[in-house]
Amino acid sequence: MDHLTILYRGPLASCDYDCPYCPFAKRRDTPEQLRADRAALERFTAWVAGCGHPVSVLFTPWGEGLVRSWYRRALVELSLLPHVERVAIQTNLSHRVGWTDDADRSRLALWATYHPGQVPYERFLGRCRELDERGVRFSVGIVGQPEHLDAARRLRADLPSGVYLWVNAAEGRTYTDAEAADWTALDPLFGHSRRAHPSRGLPCRTGDSVVSVDGDGTVRRCHFVPDVLGNLYDGSFRAALRPRPCPLAVCDCHIGYVHLEPLGLYDVFAGGVLERIPAR
């Protein structure tokens, strides 16, 4: 196998934030649930370590992973493996970032989201500046709610100029051209998020060179198509890997549509597909 990209989402569902616009159902994990998540992640990390071919991993937890020691450890360990080209995680950046000093920062990356009202602005900005000083690759984003526009403008002005600020269209929201222009002034790529992408029948890398894996090792083509391709740990998924069209009418999430081949976003984000960093 030339290269496999894996979107991993274990059972972790607890988060230290309670954003009113978040589409994910949050809960407070019990100690037993946390132990199960840790065991699942350690099993996955061990598989990646021994898989024997190039791989990249994006952790997309329902909750916040970096407040848990096992996620920080997994990112460090995977970044140090020569066959892991990139390991990244979606995070609210609420945890301290000193742990990144132990990682190979040429392979580690963070996809950070700023949630106004959930964290003091200066604390979030300070974490971003720390990452920049440490030489960690990261993107920063915000949900395009009207009440977030001033915060987004402030963040764009204060972030290091080389840090990409992305804007996610709010779930279920329709933007006028004037509203879209405000967000596009901050994120030139906002147009890709503004509207759902018709996808049925279009070629997509998911199910071929990109797969989604859950805590049990169940492999699907992506987070949004429920059909099972097999299991990671018994190797049964490998026989199912092949180019295939998207079966869904539309794709409206970046971690899905970035893999739609006709959109050409692998060129736009060359070298930074998983962490959502465009090529310079």
UniProtKB/TrEMBL annotation:
InterPro entries in the record: Aldolase_TIM, Radical_SAM_STM4011-like, rSAM_sf
SUPFAM superfamilies named in the record: Radical SAM enzymes (SSF102114)
Protein name in the entry: Radical SAM protein
